[in-house]
């Protein structure tokens, strides 16, 4: 009796401890074991072109996971073999995951197609499960790759617009909690909590998908044919500043971005800076003409070399002293003639004109990865640097900055801030347009029109840009050939070949720029980059149904009658 009383008192004490003193703690542990919290991923918004064609889209996927503790030890090898085959993973990796029997949830693969996940579940492997998720897909593969960027395994944007607009695209994940039994099946009639995910919003770009594709194809061929290191192309709407195409080559396949080198994932059109060369001469021309010291018909006696401080600077080709109008200087891209015009104005005036055109600062486009370029303060210019800057050496720009210069000239002297995002959708899916870009007058309309005519002469048969001419259209543009600074060789090695212009020249609608870095077969802008401009601009004019104006360019005097 005494022994029984002692045993029963121990039982009673234990019951008091379990049901009274420790009840809340034990109840909480029981709930923690039964309740399974789960994140409900939000569908990421799409990135589309200007017409709504999807450039980046989210599709349904499945995550395949294992519960090693629930896998039958006798069938562990079969499970490892089956999953390795279906998921295209090394069997050793799957077997290592199955060996972690103290864990209840180990993801093996994300971004699995629903049909494949259904096939896996059809094997009825104990301890193997799937759950709904999403994966990011880029239908165009490398199309606009450097601009779009990509997402990581967690679905967050890592580079490009995917990163810059992550807060808009990502939405907000939901969550739910349910009660599971020992076999990890839901306990009927138990409570559950669910907070629905909020899907991300779409981002619509100003890009024209077809024009983007054509620009990338043309550029890639030219980079390959010339043995160049890389290249970029930009097409803009003159009146609105909207970027219609921003192409780079080489470029990564966004569906397999991990396999591409970092430089091929970058948006070179805004991240790579280079010395612009002769395309920069229009700014010197604008500064001199706005100051009233030269006109298109001003005559210069131009030798093939000129002494600037301790440097003797030369034209691209040797020639004897010859009389040239300022139009001829620009059309034939004379370095010496440009220096002679720049000597008529102060360094500060020239510097201020560079700043007005947007050099030394980001364009305001919002394109991720954009660099400022390099524009030294005019007080620091050396004697020779003042001369070289006039024709585009000694300063550095991005392709977008130089494109903006020619958009300004084509637009009658009004610079419109470049833009890449047309708008986004709101919480109800309705499109909300981005604010109109700001316009700022940089030079007078008369100066802009005069320079446009001079640039037409540069595309004529006597100019350096004849390869950019388009049959039936009036085209204005400028070649550029600059020595290329390369950190790998710690100095100048190779060239940057550029052509930039607009059409129709008398009623500008579109401007385009092509820049080829370090071509091995020829290196002049007129031979290397102008054909790219021609092909891209021709496609753009036709696809956007822009007809020729039907007018003829006025005769421009390049050399006065002797």
UniProtKB/TrEMBL annotation:
Q: Does the keyword Membrane apply?
A: yes
Query: Where does the record place the Penicillin-binding protein dimerisation domain?
Result: 40-183
The domain of life for this entry's organism is: Bacteria
Q: Which UniProt keywords apply?
A: Membrane
**All residue ranges annotated as the Penicillin-binding protein transpeptidase domain in the record:** 231-537
Q: Where is it mainly found?
A: membrane
Subcellular localization, per the record? Answer: Membrane
InterPro entries named among the record's database cross-references: Beta-lactam/transpept, Beta-lactam/transpept-like, PBP_dimer, PBP_dimer_sf, PCN-bd_Tpept
Family note: Belongs to the transpeptidase family.
Q: What is this protein called?
A: Penicillin-binding protein 2
Question: Which organism is this protein's natural source?
Answer: Microbispora triticiradicis
């Amino acid at each position: 009796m005494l022994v029984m009383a002692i045993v029963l008192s121990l039982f009673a004490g234990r019951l008091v401890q379990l049901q009274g003193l420790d009840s809340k703690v034990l109840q909480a542990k029981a709930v923690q074991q039964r309740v399974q919290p789960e994140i409900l991923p939000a569908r990421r918004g799409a990135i589309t072109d200007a017409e709504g064609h999807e450039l980046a889209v989210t599709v349904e996927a499945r995550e395949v996971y294992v519960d090693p503790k629930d896998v039958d030890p006798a069938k562990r090898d079969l499970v490892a073999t089956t999953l390795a085959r279906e998921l295209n993973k090394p069997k050793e990796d799957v077997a290592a995951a199955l060996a972690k029997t103290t864990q209840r949830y180990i993801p093996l693969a994300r971004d699995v197609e629903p049909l494949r996940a259904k096939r896996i579940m059809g094997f009825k492997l104990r301890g193997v499960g799937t759950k709904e998720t999403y994966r990011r897909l880029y239908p165009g593969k490398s199309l606009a790759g450097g601009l779009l960027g990509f997402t990581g395994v967690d679905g967050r944007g890592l580079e490009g617009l995917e990163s810059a607009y992550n807060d808009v695209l990502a939405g907000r994940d939901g969550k739910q909690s349910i009660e599971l039994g020992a076999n990890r099946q839901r306990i009927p009639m138990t409570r559950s909590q669910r907070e629905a995910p909020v899907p991300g919003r779409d981002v619509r770009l100003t890009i024209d998908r077809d024009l983007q594709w054509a620009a990338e194809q043309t550029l890639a061929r030219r980079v390959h044919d010339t043995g160049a290191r890389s290249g970029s192309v930009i097409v803009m709407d003159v009146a609105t500043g909207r970027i219609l195409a921003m192409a780079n080559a080489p470029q990564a396949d966004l569906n397999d971005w991990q396999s591409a080198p970092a430089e091929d994932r970058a948006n070179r059109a805004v991240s790579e800076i280079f010395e612009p060369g002769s395309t920069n001469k229009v700014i010197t021309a604008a500064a001199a003409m706005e100051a009233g010291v030269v006109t298109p018909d001003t005559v210069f006696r131009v030798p093939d070399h000129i002494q600037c401080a301790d440097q003797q600077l030369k034209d691209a080709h040797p020639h004897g002293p010859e009389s040239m109008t300022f139009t001829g200087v620009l059309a034939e891209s004379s370095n010496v003639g440009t220096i002679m015009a720049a000597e008529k104005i102060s360094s500060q005036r020239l510097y201020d004109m560079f700043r007005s055109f947007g050099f030394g600062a980001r364009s305001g486009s919002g394109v991720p990865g954009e660099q400022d370029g390099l524009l030294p303060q005019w007080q620091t210019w050396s004697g020779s640097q003042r001369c070289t800057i006039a024709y585009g050496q000694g300063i550095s720009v991005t392709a977008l900055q130089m494109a903006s210069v020619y958009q300004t000239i084509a637009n009658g002297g009004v610079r419109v801030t470049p833009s890449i995002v047309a708008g986004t959708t709101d919480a109800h899916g309705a499109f909300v347009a981005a604010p109109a870009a700001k316009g700022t007058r940089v030079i007078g309309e008369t100066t802009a029109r005069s320079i446009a005519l001079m640039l037409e002469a540069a595309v004529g048969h006597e100019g350096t840009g004849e390869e950019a001419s388009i049959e039936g259209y009036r085209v204005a543009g400028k070649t550029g050939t600059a020595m290329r600074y390369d950190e790998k060789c710690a100095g100048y090695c190779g060239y940057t070949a550029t052509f930039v212009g607009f059409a129709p020249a008398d009623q500008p609608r579109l401007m385009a720029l092509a820049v080829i870095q370090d071509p091995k077969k020829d290196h002049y802008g007129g031979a290397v980059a102008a054909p790219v401009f021609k092909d891209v601009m021709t496609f753009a004019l036709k696809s956007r149904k822009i007809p020729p104006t039907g007018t003829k360019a006025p005769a421009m005097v390049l050399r006065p009658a002797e």
